């Protein structure tokens, strides 16, 4: 009985805070935080209900207060809806990040292949290829190695492009993505 009154009192106090909201800052003083001798904390709109009652300052914004469900009517809790929304948002973010990572990888590979294309062209005209290492030493490189590296990069670029163009949307859809998550 006391717990029901406390819950009802809290719901009434929160509802009045939501209604009055930010337009009337003095209305928040109508909600008092009361710590009982056993350590329990309750909230009331009656400052005389507890000798240690002091005005409560909310630390956040109340988004929505739901009325009590009718007997026999099942409702999903706001916490479950919020959790489902957060899970959906994080899944969408993860898929968008995956797509962005593949696009970044493609851009990096295309930059490397452009550099190798110049080296292959130089090799095809009979030139020698030299690479400089981290400490500034120059080393001769076999043109066959440059061509092999170029072909490997071209193959990788084709695979990443195919994944972005053909596979990622289907993979996302099979895992439960909603339309538009990665477009």
Your description of this structure?
The protein has 183 residues and is mostly helical. The protein has 2 domains: 2-55, no CATH class; 94-174. The chain is built from 3 helices and 5 strands; from the N terminus they run αβββαββα. The protein has helices spanning 2-20, 78-124, 143-174; strands at 32-35, 41-44, 54-55, 129-132, 138-141. The strands form 2 sheets. The protein has a 3-stranded antiparallel β-sheet with strand order 2-1-3. The chain has a two-stranded antiparallel sheet with strand order 4-5. The protein is elongated and about 95 Å long. Residues 1-8 and 15-28 have low confidence and may be disordered.
Features:
183 residues; elongated; two-stranded antiparallel sheet; single chain; disordered N terminus; 3-stranded antiparallel β-sheet; mainly alpha; 5 strands
